[in-house]
Structure prediction request, 833 residues.
Amino acid sequence: MTTDLHDELLGVVRDLTQREVAPRSADLDAGDRDAFAHCWTAACAIGLDRVLLAEEFGGAGLGPADLLAMIEEMAAGDAGLAVAVLLHNVALAALPAEAVAAVADGERWSVTLPPLAPSLAFGISKGSAGVSGRIPFVPGALGAGGFAILDPAPGSAALFFHSTAPGLTIQPYPFQMGWRSSPAAGLVLDEVTATPVPHSVGSDSGATRLVRLGVSAVARGIAGRAWELAFEYAHSRHQGGVFIIEHGAVRSLLAGMAVQLQGVGPAAISRAWLDGDDGGAIAAKVLASDAAVGVTTDAVQVFGGAGYMCETGVEKLMRDAMYCRLYPEPNWLVSDQLVASFERRH
Amino acid sequence: MFERGVSATVPPVRSLEEAFPRFRARDPSTVRVLGDVRERAHAFAQQHVRPLALDIDQRAAADPRYVDWDLVKAGCEHGLLSLAIPSAAGGQGGLVQEMCVTLEELCAACPGVGNIFGAHGLGMLPLLVTGVTHWDGLLHDIAVAERQGRPVLMACAVTEPDAGTDVEEVDLMRRGKITSRAVLVAGGWRLNGTKRFISNGSLADWVTVCMPSDPKRPAETWTCFLVDAHSEGFSVGRVEHKMGQRACPAAELIFDDVFVPDERVVGRPGDGMPSTLLVLAASRPAVAAIATGIARGAYDRVLGWLEQEPTLIGRQQVQLALARMEEEIHLARQGYLDAATEVDATISPALHHPLVRAMRMVPSSTRRRPLVRRWITSPWARQTTVAVLRHTVTDRAVTRSLALSSLAKAHAADVAVSVTGLALELVGLDAGEIRAELEKLWRDAKLTQIYEGTNQLNRLTVYRGLSRQETMVALPPSRLRLVGGRQ
Prediction:
């Protein structure tokens, strides 16, 4: 895509985020379903629900790099909504054409990735009668029209099923701290009839890589917003008779935030995608989510007591950032996978 | 949803000698007293507080005015409101060390609930550092009410809408925008202004509040007042929706021409700022203990959870993370204990001055007689209290204590945020109730980097007090000089 078109598209998403999403950020965080429905409808109206699909399926025919840039813009308004858009697009890209055609306008899907550690395996088993097992944490599962279960093992298939499938129980996830506009749930499958499909996004591990890069884009969006808020606040709040930006302690905090943000630039994300680099995707996700937690924590610090209060909206960014560190797997857990990806190259 | 209830089992607490290795070299009676205090707090925290922590957090998220009064009353049975009240006033005579050890235990279970008792202690601190004046008034009443199972809570109100960091540091205060004001009137003072983010503000029966009598010279006229929350003109404004520590509400307090009689001035008019430094020297180790407790609470939980996950705990990455947490918590605990020991040692000579010892020997019933009471609250007695402080404690000793306390606070707060984050990362999103508890502790932890002065301000105090060996004016001035008994 040309740079001009790319920028124009991003401008549309940015405008939507500022106009429709950001003003509803607190409502979205409070789990207001009407606010979510409004934002989701607005996102669908500009085609954000079908970014990766070809035009014959009503899609925009854009590439993953475009989707990631859009996700980052949207995450500046609300991370939960951005995650919903990400997972929906990944799910649709994994579905076969006839299943995509059956997804109604405005319907939202979610997706699950296999866990990295064998000890945390879902315990999904595919028997002749259907699929059984338990999947613990699926963002946006409440209210989703269907689910795709991705399996990155070479040659294996993804599975998909509708949320109304017999044998499926959706268990709400209690006390969700981050991404609260995408209420998560555990899925319990008891001989659910699930349709197998081959992957359709890039290589076999493409969907998993896209989700990780998507989470790093969400993390960047959150961190960027935290930086903006802290920077503005430092120029408006007086302490000691001057704007707090004049205090070396505050400048030092802001400088540290800026360095962290620079360190996770979009280049790393798109390079990992274009190179089909699983290790790069994992590293991008770890770096961006750690940076997001660091930047948002410092942003609350710049605000002081006010930042700890919900009304300023900064503490929400900190909570959302932490979920980027925990999903699709906690950052510490990727070390084996990351090293393995380098071992494969040698 | 997770269930609400009282736990029948109490997990073991490590012995003091094991948790604080340096206790081996200490006076055995002090170790025994602190050990008892810790055991009691641990039992209360694990039996009564931890089982309710998530439930209270959720209720307070929906309604920030929500308070679990049954839990506060249960705290009365464990003497948590009178811990720091002198035994001569009917309390338990604990000092900063006792307060800290207790807060670590409470906050390992629920920092919000711990902060109700911590903020109560902070509310009492200005009364405690100003000598015997208030022993037989409010402090005695709090201890008596506690024995009757009737909690009388306190709060300390310093922060203003436009002055947060400014009110914690004398140079900033001189250039800051303090809008509250106390005006001298016949028989007392009239207070006007708004205080913000006051922990316990909406629960307290009594509030110690600081205001200047001359807004142009706030640092020189900063005065502490004891305000009855039922006074005419006093009201509670907004109660904040907070990220964490929700069990302890943070409220806006509005003073609209509130009258405070002369005898409820805490210390002397204009002594507020030096007294604030002494209060901060005593309160910052408490915040460090709160932060240490939060980190330890996360560590205990993740360790317990991992015992059920043999494939995870067998991995070196996990073992290294656990060792790192143990390391951080150990150092944070030594930090607060060092600071608390230093503060207690700094103020101890004043507590053992012959005049104070003599006052202790007078029965409380005698001290409460109107004539004696009038003498105790007189300007002359207040002047003598300051003279005792000046005679037994130095500005440098308080500055050093304050710097050590600030060091402990800033370090422990960072430890709390990092250890809770690490614990949450270890268990991930599929760990049921433990995950929710760890998320809560991580949210709770962030506040410790902010309250009692931001970590940045605390570290600047470390620079002044330790790196530069500066001596701040940390005690009120005294023209009265005492002889003999100087430490």
Summary: The mean pLDDT of chain A is 89. The radius of gyration of chain A is 20 Å.
